[in-house]
Amino acid sequence: MDERVAIVTGAGTGIGAATARLLDEKGLTVALVARRADRLEGVAAGLERAFVLPSNLAERDEPARVVEAVLERTGRIDVLVNNAAAFELALVPDVTVEQFDDNFAVNVRAPYFLVQAALPALRASPAASIVNVSSAAAAMYRPRQTIYGLTKAALEHMTKNLAAELAPDRIRVNCVRPGPVATEIHQVVANPEERLAQLGAMVPLGRVGRPEEIARWIWNLVDRDAEWVTGVVIPVDGGRVLGPPEAV
Ligand SMILES: NC(=O)c1ccc[n+]([C@@H]2O[C@H](COP(=O)([O-])OP(=O)(O)OC[C@H]3O[C@@H](n4cnc5c(N)ncnc54)[C@H](OP(=O)(O)O)[C@@H]3O)[C@@H](O)[C@H]2O)c1
Question: Which of 31, 59, 108, 200 is the most exposed place for a label (fewest CB within 10 A)?
Fold first, then answer.
């Protein structure tokens, strides 16, 4: 069993919930973080050791408060999965400064300051691992996704910078870059089922992903067996960034 303590943000739904379940199965104690306490409680109810920490990560002092609360309860932090994200589709004339700032606060600022606050605990860990969850949008250039894509490209840059900076502390920093996955995030459009079907048709391997398929790769990077892996961005996307499937 793996006795480490993990923070998973966005753990009430989708990829974060699947990740929390897998880490719990591996023996880790998981702090489940997101805004909706009921969704976090729902996930925690099925787990052995998890506990919930409701938090709005758009607020500037929340990363430090979350870390403090986890340390108060467990005395250690070994793993941080920065998975929560704001996702809004908007054309450039419609984007407000508040929306821009809010998206950066959740997708970039909170991951950075969670790392900063957790640093002393991560330095003390025998096997520290940070995994950031990016998106194929970091490497694709599509209408309505400028802000989302920018935040995810920034997260990937941050992954590599921090991997270099924290390597002397033996803190590994990696990233998983999912393609389209069937989760609640697609509810921002009027017809999510239709959108997922359209997205699946654009994936060379012919379908959208399942949250558990992303969680598996997050685990692969958390696993002590990955102790010589840092600074990588792993696409788990059915080939999405290669472009749409073509007849051969
Ligand atoms: N599904 C896809 O197609 C896809 C593709 C590429 C990348 N991703 C990435 O995968 C990650 C997980 O997304 P998902 O697909 O699993 O979607 P999801 O089910 O909507 O999960 C996103 C989570 O983020 C949390 N969150 C959003 N704003 C927050 C805030 N201000 N403070 C705290 N938590 C917040 C949400 O919980 P609350 O609302 O309760 O706060 C939710 O649990 C995201 O980073 C996303 O960008 C997803």
Answer: 59
